[in-house]
Amino acid sequence: MEVSNTILQIISSFIEADLRVAAPILIAAIGLLYMEKAGVVNIGAEGTMLIGALAGSIGAYLFQNPWMGALVAALAGGLVGVMFAYLVVTVKANQIVAGIAINILALGGTTTVNRIFFGLNASSSDIPSFTKVAIPLLSEIPVIGSLFNQLGLAYLAILMVPFTYYLMKKTTIGLSIRSVGEHPESADTAGINVFRIRYGTIIIGSMIIGVAGAYLSVGLLSFFSENMVSGRGYIALASVIFGKWNAFGVLGATLLFGFGDALQIRMQAIGSAIPYQFLLMLPYLLTVAAWSGFVGKAVAPKASGKPYFKG
Amino acid sequence: MIYYKKNCKKRLTNDSSATIMNKQIYMLYVHVRGKGILEAEMENIKQKPVGLLILRLFPPETAWKLLIQILSVFSALLVGAVVIKLIGGSPGAAYRALLVGSMGNLKAVMETLVKATPLIFTGLSFAYAAKAGLINIGAEGQLYMGGFLATLVGSSFGWMPLIIHLPITLLAGFIGGGLWGLIIGWLKVKFGANEIITTVMFNYVAIYFISYLVTGPMIEPPGTYPQSRPITDTAILPRFFQGSRLHWGFIVALLCVFLFWFFFRKLKVGYESRVVGSNFEAAKYAGMKPAKVMILIMFIAGGMGGLAGANEILGIQGKLFQGFSPGYGFDGIAVALVGMNSPFGIILGGILFGALRSGGNMMQMIAKVPISTIYIIQSLVIIFVIAGQMITLENRRKLLAIFRRNNGSE
Predict the structure, then answer these.
(1) CATH for A251
(2) Is position A128 within any domain?
(3) Nearest to B142 by CA among B118, B164, B117
(4) How far apart (Å, rounded) are the C-alpha atoms in residues B363 and B83?
(5) Minimal Cα–Cα distance from B204 to chain A, Å?
(6) Containing domain of residue A270, as a range?
(7) In terms of C-beta density within 10 A (0-12 exposed, 13-18 middle, 19 or more buried), how is residue A158 classed?
């Protein structure tokens, strides 16, 4: 009885940890999904998240409200999106290189601004952070109840999955986005404004990615630290590919990757014989496997990564 | 381009299977590059008596590209100045400190070259792939894998003399990165897996793999610190002078730049790589084997990344540990972009970004501008250069029209 209770407790805390770790990746991946569907590959998600994280902590500090932090993060992400969109849509620069530039810019920019704004002795108590919201009744279910005791943003992230799925599959705007990603020439002929769709999806997607950054700095932690995103933007990109550009697939991918991450932390703690680094590699290896067709071929939108030349 | 024509004839007439195709490939090549008009124009210019040495040395296209490139870099520095001003620094003082810190005296220049060395390697890594139409974002991972294999060989076999041990260790570094790149090429050719995504993913796989090695199997006894055993003296890249970290790795880098030029300008396989890069179908039609070429190119590109890692370990760090590269792999992309994938340009690009890195400390100390600002400047350089290159593309035809008028040719 005693033992089974402990096991249940472990499982319960594990489920909670999984969603907690997966949520920021899920938010970023959903943001990425919008522009990926329109044929834009954004490696700069990592940098956009980092900028969102800093903007989030600044916003939360200035307004003394975590939700304002998320809003400021969204605006900052949107600004990055405008810049990225200008580079890859209007100037038609290489999307990958533009993304790398954003990552380097974010690394330098956030470090610099952080030192100027918070100085070296920032105290985390000055920045308000999100608190957990327990859903009545559901959160009292044994074992899986911990699923319903998360940060407010995590619920939003989950809700965005069916919403995005519906938007992409069932609405005209979703159809336009998909056609721009698959075949911009035909989309243009059909009267869809390719530039506007790409600008729109990049900016909105980047805003969402910015919020994912805020989830880290005013959610999981309550301060900004240099390079705190540490690869989550790339994992988000991996989730989009592993989830085969489908909102529910992305949800599954992030939960799986989050599971690996949560497991890895546990294994480090108990000193397991399996090196934790191999679990950390798993998302990337699985994505390469999916991308190469070993585990169900992941097929990208056809116009992925290609700028559109009108006329 | 004229050179291509001669080169194409010379090389391919030697190859009996492709003799008949010779002319068609060239025409097709010109066609797919959309440079046909420019081609003809260049012929015209060169036949004229006023065809000028300067035009031969700097054909208008190259001169224009060069001008845009220089303007792009300067615009980036200008916007960088605005950024420095915005964060409360003095742009003048900051840039002066940056210049003095990186070029002010012989010691500073040598330190700039130290920083430039790995960047030249990773720049070459990106450029090799780019010439063959591939985008290699994986130099960072290749660098780590090269560092790993170089450490494996360099920390043992201490009984060998330096003259044998060091080259073998460098070769190990090349192969370490090369195999990591080869997998990418193989996945692309065999399974159609786009190299951009696979290289991005493989960076992290390599980084975690190194983390595993230096905390596990390769940890230095008794296992206090997460680092490998030191490299034996016989595999260390010797330094030139007392008091400077400049080592023989820089010479190796220059040698690799020369080999890069030689590969693409003098070797048949290099020529084939360029054709594969500009048009896959044309290459297949001409009887080349694009799949083979791509795998080879990814092997060499990976090898260059691997040499960057080996160079850092054997010349500077002396042992393998986590995060020994501060993003040299990604900086290599910027180096190749600024250098327009040309041998000389890559050296200059490497020195430019090396100077930013080596002068950053001085900038922080004297001008009180945080060292992280150099990353902002660096990203601005990338952004302006890619924007500038698109302008070049747009204006190519316009420039041509002006040129045609000035030369009075039809």
Answers:
(1) 1.10.3470
(2) no
(3) B118
(4) 14
(5) 7
(6) 2-121+137-292
(7) middle
Of A100, A111, A294, the CB nearest to B330: A100
Across the A:B interface, residue pairs with CB atoms under 8 Å apart total 132
**Is B226 in CB contact (< 8 Å) with chain A?**
no
Question: How many domains does chain A contain in total?
Answer: 1
Give the one of A92, A101, A300 whose C-beta lies nearest to B390's C-beta: A92
A94 to chain B, any CB pair closer than 8 A? The answer is: yes
AA letter at B268: K
Helices (H) and strands (E) in chain A, counts: 11, 2
Q: Hey, how many other C-beta atoms are within 10 angstroms of the C-beta on B88? A: 9
A285 domain-assigned: yes
Please compute the mean of the pLDDT values over residues B321-336 and round it to a whole number.
90
Q: Is residue A196 part of a domain?
A: yes
Q: Does A123 lie at the interface with B, CB-CB under 8 angstroms?
A: no
Contacts of A228 (CB under 8 A, 6+ apart): A50, A53, A216, A217, A221
A251 close contact with B: CB closer than 8 A: no
C-alpha span between A240 and A251 (Å, rounded)? 9
Contact A91 B387 (CB under 8 A): yes
Q: Could you tell me the pLDDT band of residue B401, with boundaries at 50, 70 and 90?
A: low
CB contact under 8 A, A97 and B333: yes
Long-range contacts of B32-40, Cβ-Cβ distance < 8 Å, separation of 24 or more: B32/B278, B32/B279, B32/B282, B33/B278, B33/B279, B35/B1, B37/B397, B37/B400, B38/B1, B38/B396, B38/B400, B39/B1
Structure token pair of residue B362 = 């001085």
- Which domains does chain B carry? 34-87+385-410 (no CATH), 89-369 (1.10.3470)
User: What ipTM did this prediction achieve?
Assistant: 0.86
Give me the pLDDT at residue B60, please.
Answer: 66
* Selected residues 114-143 of chain B with any CB under 8 Å from a CB in chain A: 135, 137
Nearest to A278 by CA among B213, B83, B220: B213
- Residue that has been written with the tokens 């360099």 in this structure: B154
Any A CB within 8 A of B390 CB: yes
**d(C-alpha B217, C-alpha B229), whole Å:** 11
Coil, strand or helix at A229 = coil
B32 interface with A at CB cutoff 8 Å: no
B residues 195-214 near A, CB within 8 Å? 196-198, 200-202, 204-205, 208-209, 211-212
d(CA B209, CA B75): 40
Q: For residue B198, list chain A residues with Cβ-Cβ distance below 8 A.
A: 288, 291-292
- A90-144 residue pLDDT tens: 888 888 889 999 999 999 999 888 888 887 655 556 777 777 777 776 766 766 6
Q: Is residue A152, in this structure, part of any structural domain at all?
A: yes
The span from the first CA to the last CA of chain A, in angstroms, equals: 73
Nearest-by-Cβ selection for A97 from B197, B370, B386? B386
